[in-house]
Amino acid sequence: MKKIFVLCAASTFLFACNQKKAEKTEVETTAKDSVMTDTVKEEKFTKPEQTEIYKPVPPVVNPGASSSDAPSDAIVLFDGKNLDQWEAVDQPDQPAEWNVHDGILTVDKSKGNIQTKEKFGNYQLHIEWKEPKDIDGEGQGRGNSGLFLASIGKGDAGYEMQIMDSYKNDTYVNGQAGSIYKQSVPLANPTREPGKWQAYDVIWTAPQFNEDGSLKSPAYVTAFFNGVLVQNHYELKGPTLYIGKPSYEGAAHGDSSIKLQAHGDNSKPISFRNIWVRKLP
What we know:
By secondary structure, the protein is of the alpha+beta class. Helix content is 15%, strand content 28%.
């Protein structure tokens, strides 16, 4: 009986040793296979043509004669002739009634804000504006207007990039020209003196919302002011607020119009020209 017990114990020990050896061999083999697999993966990308992409081919876009001229795929919002692309903000479907003269659009403050009839998501925008040479006033009361990158309601509802005379004119820096009003201070102040044309080139990434109205992804803006970068992929905290901190709560919306502001300050009205937009994915 004792002899049988010893033989059984010995057999159990040998079985356990063989099992551990087998497991060790399996692990080593798996590790080896893994190394070999990685090597094979690396060897799959040893030719330059394996990382070359040929389709889909980007569409051909003919550029304008200068960087300020509309490229072939742009939607011209104002070409100096009429306001067919615009409507009154507080009375949608009613014509915009600002003054068009000599190829220039001048704000009529008595007629209120205007916005594009067409609505946009992501886009590239070019717009030129000019303060009167004899502009008067100071601070926020000097040539004030606004470019609303997305209008989400009547009045000043939306996301505003400030327009005003910031040439030797002191005011709060998150309210000077080139700022995202009350949110982001511009990286520089490249404002030309009154009477000279200024230009904004803007890349707008519209906010996205979930079905329940919650924020999916925020809005971003990159902007050049007279060729100088003033907003570098800035993440907006929500629509513009004159008082308080912005948020996206209750602000869910889809594609939106681009809006221009008829500000109520007492200084002389500003003018616009050469406005065009390119839709982006």
